[in-house]
From TrEMBL:
One of its GO terms (molecular function) is ATP binding. Gene3D superfamilies: 1.20.5.1930, Histidine kinase-like ATPase, C-terminal domain (3.30.565.10), Tetratricopeptide repeat domain (1.25.40.10). The keyword Coiled coil applies. The keyword Flavoprotein does not apply. Residues 589-673 form the Histidine kinase domain. This is histidine kinase. Its EC number is 2.7.13.3. PROSITE patterns: HIS_KIN, PROKAR_LIPOPROTEIN. It comes from Flavobacterium xueshanense.
Length: 673
């Protein structure tokens, strides 16, 4: 039996207007009128190669785009878009429609805005981007509803129904079709009625409501009006094929065969719709196979497959090969049966439409029973994935409608409020002006002029004050942060070290202790001097830090070794030319070292600390490693210490990385430019 992948390709022949509505061929153009009309005519001349037609269309576009943005200009741009559509050049088609939409919005041209929405919906639908296509159709529908344009509301709802059908939202699609029919109730619209009944027939067939499907397809056939629906669309052949297909699903192959034959007998079918002709051939062959009428088999299958191959109809090719596989399996030719099924599966996978793979997998499970479990597993996996995707898409359609309606309602309420405010304000203004004129027009005019000038002056002064205050506030905050960092990174670390050392000497009274106390008192004086320098000039760093960086770092390391039990191993690359390193980088590296050592001393309980400062390419790399207790990096990054290190690294235009595991120590790496 045929599966959904067959019906998906069938459906593209049901809603024929969506496929052919761009057929804007103007064969009545007189080439002598002007070059633009000549280019339009040549761009739609299917006797020319596509590259030539594209060049003529580009020349027409170059002329149009330089013209004023009026209604005629936008009509001509739609002609450009239509010709790109006929060339299957959807990329240029989309670009042109986006230009039209922008131009239409600039001039508030509602008619062409809606038309552009519909064209963009068609583009995204052709690309399989159903949610975006749905948004554009829905926006078009809302404007049509506002304009009470029932016919176009119905057409747009049919486009939405088609999107939902293609995403297997059959019930949602059915609801949209009935909403389309309600929009044209009591109106002459045979084309919409035909499309609606056709789609309802297809939907009910998918829902296994085959009797209902027959009713709707019969109604569709009865509503074909060739004055409204041109015969080139082959709507009668389409409906005959659909009815035959329903009988095929009901295993009534004799009835199905009659309808397929009638469809093939329609005039000019192979010229107008070769893909439909191939489909009818395949369906007829399949019904004859089920009836065990072998005279034309497998010839009809091969004939259909050849035509579908030439037209590159992927889903049709897959269906044909599945039918051939069933035929040869019945004839006990297992090799050919497996060959055609595997070819169908390969084609399905290369098409990137996973639904196409279901029928080949099902057939392979039947004809290769030893591998049935494997094929069934793949089938279930793909089917489950498709069902989840379809469910999400259905929810997305509902969400789009809800959110769009909500935005439209909010905009409508806002427009009403603005309009009421405008009316109220206008009324008050008119009343005030009337009183103003009655009392003293000249005096009031002078007073009003003076007040206006005074108001402008006051506003300028106020804005200047606000701007100045903002600047002062920003600078004040920056200075506060910088002072906090300087005090935290420099002074507090040293004071902490001095305090620890003095505490350790409290119980010692010998001369060595006295000498050390004196040294630490001297250090306190130095700290006092640092604080004084910070308060006098926040932008100045100590000159010895800048001019003798290595010596200052060594002093820091010596203090560390004297004060703490942890073993400190340091290595500063002698190849670094510190005179070429900017003062800013040296200052920030020193502060990072101070902060890191302070944190290790407070929290790490480390036995060994390794510090490495080396040069790689154009970068300086500072690496600080300890074998302490480690910590949770995510939690610790919120602390002021690590925040300061991160800030300092950024000041160097560098990168900061920290790795730590509880019980395994910590590694801090800073890369400075």
């Amino acid at each position: 039996m045929l599966l959904k992948n067959f019906y998906n390709i069938l459906f593209f022949f049901l809603l024929f207007f969506s496929c052919n509505k761009k057929n804007d061929v103007n064969l009545d153009v007189n080439p002598s009128i002007d070059s633009l009309s000549i280019y339009f005519s040549l761009a739609n001349d299917f006797n020319l190669s596509q590259s030539h037609r594209k060049k003529f269309n580009q020349k027409a576009y170059a002329i149009i785009i330089k013209q004023p943005n009026d209604s005629l200009n936008r009509i001509n741009l739609f002609k450009i878009a239509n010709r790109y559509y006929n060339m299957d050049n959807l990329k240029e088609y989309k670009k042109t429609v986006q230009v039209i939409l922008k131009n239409s919005e600039n001039t508030k041209d509602t008619i062409n805005i809606i038309k552009a929405f519909t064209y963009l919906g068609d583009y995204y639908a052709s690309q399989g981007i159903s949610d975006t296509a749905f948004i554009y159709y829905f926006r078009a529908e809302k404007i049509y509803l506002k304009d009470y344009d029932g016919y176009n509301v119905a057409k747009t709802r049919l486009n939405k129904a088609l999107l939902k059908y293609n995403e297997s939202d059959f019930l949602g699609s059915e609801i949209e079709v009935f909403k389309a029919l309600s929009a044209i109730k009591g109106k002459e619209a045979n084309d919409v009625i035909y499309e609606s009944y056709n789609l309802l027939g297809v939907i009910n067939s998918q829902l296994d409501e085959h009797n209902k499907s027959l009713v709707f397809h019969t109604k569709a056939l009865a509503n074909i009006d060739e004055k409204v629906i041109p015969s080139v669309f082959q709507s009668r052949a389409t409906s005959l094929n659909n009815i035959g297909f329903v009988y095929q699903n009901l295993n009534k192959h004799k009835e199905a065969k009659l309808y397929f034959k009638q469809g093939l007998e329609q005039k000019n079918l192979i010229a107008d719709k070769p893909s439909l002709y191939a489909m009818l051939l395949d369906n007829l062959a399949y019904s004859e196979f089920k009836l065990k009428e072998w005279d034309q088999l497998p010839k009809l299958f091969y004939q259909s497959l050849k035509l579908r191959d030439s037209l590159r109809l992927t889903a049709g090719i897959i269906t044909n090969k599945i039918h051939l596989s069933e035929y040869f399996a019945f004839k006990k030719d297992t090799v050919k049966a497996i060959q055609f099924s595997k070819e169908a599966l390969q084609t399905a996978r290369s098409s990137k439409n996973y639904r196409n793979a279901l029928a080949p997998l099902k057939q392979l499970a039947i004809i290769e029973p030893q591998k049935a479990a494997e094929y069934t597993k793949q089938y279930i996996h793909i089917n489950d994935s498709l069902q989840k995707a379809e469910r999400k898409m259905g929810e997305k359609f509902s969400r789009i409608e809800y959110e769009t309606d909500k935005i439209i309602d909010e905009n409508s309420d806002l427009e009403t409020k603005n309009r009421n405010l405008l009316f109220g304000f206008s009324a008050l203004t008119m009343l005030g002006l009337s009183l103003f004129v009655i009392k003293s027009q000249k005096a009031k005019n002078r007073e009003l002029l003076f007040k206006q000038q005074q108001q402008i002056a006051n506003e300028e002064i106020y804005n200047l004050m606000i701007s100045q205050q903002n600047t002062i506030e920003i600078n004040r905050i920056k200075e506060k942060k910088r002072v906090a960092r300087e005090l935290h990174d420099g002074v507090l670390g040293r004071m902490f070290g001095v305090r620890i050392n003095l505490d350790s000497l409290n119980k010692v009274v010998d001369e060595t202790a006295i000498e050390k106390r004196n040294n630490y008192l001297t250090e306190l004086k130095n700290i006092e001097q640092d604080i004084r320098e910070i308060s006098h000039d926040l932008n100045r760093e100590k000159s010895e830090l800048i001019n003798n960086f290595v010596a200052i770092v060594d002093n820091l390391f010596e203090d560390q070794k004297k004060t703490y039990k942890s073993k400190l191993i340091s290595n500063i690359d002698s190849a670094i030319k510190w005179e070429l390193v900017s003062n800013s980088v040296k200052i920030n590296l020193y502060r990072i070292l101070q902060e890191a050592l302070q944190n290790i001393n407070k929290y790490a309980n480390a036995n060994t600390i390794k510090i490495e400062l080396k040069k790689e390419a154009d970068h300086l790399i500072l690496k600080i490693t300890d074998d302490g207790i480690g910590f949770n990096v995510k939690t610790a990054k919120k602390g002021i210490g690590l925040q300061n290190i991160l800030f300092r690294a950024k000041e160097c235009d560098g990168m900061f990385d920290i790795k730590s595991t509880k019980g395994e120590g910590t590694i801090i790496t800073v890369t400075a430019q």
